[in-house]
């Protein structure tokens, strides 16, 4: 069996990072983000990164940590509103942003991973998002062309993996991770549980091992909550 | 007099039909879920990847892996399915969600919507709003009739960058309800909040609208 399991995030990233590279990261908000690998990227000192991720973390957690150390040159995201450090660097002209509508971003990752260089969508037609992009009429409706994304490296978070790299995500922590896993030239997954071969029902695999080149056990599973909203246990 | 936020949400809830799959935006639209009639069964979708959204959890039920599109902790139901964000927006873009209720900064009389960006201020990004208005079959906007400076938000044309063109089907404000039967028709004033006169609605509205016979 090809050995996909590495001892640490640092070992899994060894030889995989270079300045100026493009990295796609799974996660939505702070949910399902590859916390361990983000911290290892901070420690690697790699610079001038283009990061493709729906959000940019918060100031001191998630991708915000890479922003704080000024290792990111450009973000491709749908929403970056939770991050003051992002705002400071953007307004100072130190950080570039390419907004991609959320569904378009998910589809761009999916398309890139599936060998589709571009696709047409109604999303964003007639808005700033469509400026400079080709449009086409299909059956009387106008669509805008969006490009698939292929990144140098994908980092994802999963709940379970077997040594073959078959991944299972948990609840809404799935979000962008399955598409991100497909669109990296190399994909590294960090997982909460590494299980024995055969322990995952083949019918329950979300991301097949073909998409995953390297695996680590996640050592950061803080799973910080952005909006802790609760109801009284006594109500209703 | 004018409608409160809860009354606006309750009015939007009257547009729900049994069996609908519905996406509710962040803010006042979220309140719509509190006003669903007992004989109506709907399924809420959250675009990050939940179909079948439950209530907020009790403190003991909080699970950081279950959050809605507003990044709030929520719960699952017996009908819930989790999907990837690509599959979730496939539901939206593919026209499988019947109704979305969203907030707005401006709506134009031609149905254009602006709700994602104020030039000169920090730009946060559109999130899923552009996908929702482009893909969901019916779009209801819930917004205050006037902005904080007292200017009309229902206008001849949007002045802010657009989220979508000709996408709004109904506008519910704290003063009135406007609707149009299809996206080639003009908006029509169909209801006013108690005590709100037609003149007051006209004074507070820049958009052209027709008036339903009383």
TrEMBL record, chain A:
Q: Name one Pfam family in it.
A: CoA_trans
Identify the keywords attached in UniProt to this record, alphabetized. Transferase
Reply yes or no: does the keyword Transferase apply. yes
Question: What GO MF terms are annotated?
Answer: CoA-transferase activity
Q: Does the keyword Transferase apply?
A: yes
Extract the PANTHER family matched here: ACETATE COA-TRANSFERASE SUBUNIT ALPHA, KETOACID-COENZYME A TRANSFERASE
The family assignment reads: Belongs to the 3-oxoacid CoA-transferase subunit A family.
Q: What is the protein named?
A: CoA transferase subunit A
- Origin species, per record, is Sphingomonas zeae
Automatic annotation (TrEMBL), chain B:
> In its keyword annotation, does this UniProt entry include Transferase?
yes
- Tell me which UniProt keywords the record has, alphabetically: Transferase
Molecular-function annotations in GO: CoA-transferase activity
Presence of keyword Transferase: yes
Specify the superkingdom.
Bacteria
Q: Which InterPro entries match?
A: 3-oxoacid_CoA-transf_B, CoA_trans_fam_I, CoA_transf_AS, NagB/RpiA_transferase-like
Which Pfam families does this entry report, sorted A to Z? CoA_trans (PF01144)
Indicate the family of this protein: Belongs to the 3-oxoacid CoA-transferase subunit B family.
Q: What is this protein called?
A: CoA transferase subunit B
Q: Which organism is it from?
A: Sphingomonas zeae
Source species taxonomy: Bacteria, Pseudomonadati, Pseudomonadota, Alphaproteobacteria, Sphingomonadales
